[in-house]
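Q: what sequence does this backbone want?
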């Protein structure tokens, strides 16, 4: 009969809690897809006989989507910097 002995407290493994990944992983690809579509539509409307307001609307939509992508980039960068300052790297979990 083999009995397992509990390890002394100084030899127990410690784990550092890692923040959960953001739940909105599909947001960035969706924003990129919508940006590409709005830029394409803006280009098509500017060369067609559609009213200028339609082209302006697609151009404004492209600006809003681009701003949302920039905001997402900086939020992720700030989160990675905060996590990295604690000694944890999201990009290289083995490091």
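A:
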């Amino acid at each position: 009969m083999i009995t397992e002995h509990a390890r002394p407290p100084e030899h127990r493994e410690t784990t550092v809690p890692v923040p959960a990944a953001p739940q909105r992983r599909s947001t960035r690809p969706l924003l990129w897809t919508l940006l590409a579509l709005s830029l394409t539509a803006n280009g098509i409307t500017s060369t067609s006989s559609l009213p200028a307001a339609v082209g302006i609307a697609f151009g404004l939509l492209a600006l809003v989507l681009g701003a949302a992508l920039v905001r997402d980039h900086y939020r992720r960068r700030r989160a990675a910097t905060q996590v990295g300052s604690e000694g944890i790297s999201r990009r290289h979990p083995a490091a």
